[in-house]
Amino acid sequence: MQTVDIVKWAATVIQLIGYGMTGLNMTPWNVYAFFVGIFLWFAVGVMWKDKAIMVVHVGAFISLFVGYLNAA
Fold first, then answer.
1. Region label for 37, one of left (φ > 0), alpha (ψ between -120 and 50) or beta (otherwise)
2. What angle (nearest 5°) sits at the alpha carbon of residue 26, between those of residues 23 and 28?
3. Under a CB-based contact definition with an 8 Å cutoff, are residues 11 and 40 in contact?
4. Is the pTM of this model over 0.85?
């Protein structure tokens, strides 16, 4: 298994955990899980040289970060 595959699956599992935590109202831990998943998916985009994946995850990070700051 290639490194990118390990990172991709780790990111996917962490994102799913974040969704589950959101459903269980486990804030702010769900946000932290999403930040880790977003970072890892961005890394996958870098490894694949896929700008679309990088852009969507930068957008997700900005949206989540602004929401996190406004909630505090």
1. alpha
2. 125
3. yes
4. yes
